[in-house]
Amino acid sequence: MTDSRYLKRTILKDEIQSRFLNAKRNLRIYLPPGYNEILSYPVVYCQDGEEFFNFGRVATHANRLILDEGLEPFIIVGVEVDTSIRTQEYAPFGSLFEAYTSCFSKEIVPYIEGKYPIRREASERVLAGDSLGGSVSLHLALMYPELFTRVISLSGAYYDQSREIIARAQNLTYLEVWMTVGLQETEFKSDTGIHNFVEINRKTAEMLRERGATVSYREKDGKHLWGFWQNELPDALSYFLGLA
Questions:
Q1: Quick one: pLDDT at residue 1?
Q2: pTM here?
């Protein structure tokens, strides 16, 4: 990706004050080549927004896909997180989980759609996340099906509590999930213990399918790192945003 066209990106920085979190939240907004306010665009919301832009190179990928591969232009919103409280916000057992998911659905989405020309249909919103960011994206789709039906999950951290929530779901026919996991993620050490991410992602994909969700699932050589996920992003974005 050395083509200079890919590096000419429009990335804005916004900030909102959340009443649910009682704190400010920084957002990074990628606007596609040829952005025009009189048009309307699909949107991809990324958890761990700073990492998606810095390590996932999501804006560079988007430019290439739009300019060279005919993907319809789309907007990206990176929702930044304080890594010291990330588990508390992203995990369903976290003390800030309810506040964060409320902030996301009731403050961030309305703010973005009030300021940028985003299409309002659930099918035009994609949630994306890595590890716990993948699981909180899925939880948002379970909690707010009227807002979110499409999820990109990069090595999702679907711990026991997450799978228990999925198990209680009756009908997930509205849900479409793109999943990937690295085959070298069988003994990943996290702040909640050592986990076999291949096993928990296989189980989660099966549970989602049993409840009617559409799941595109893959296992590849890779570790629980952005070096793996960065290379998976183009396929994930292409899966949902398709060819123009």
A1: 45
A2: 0.95
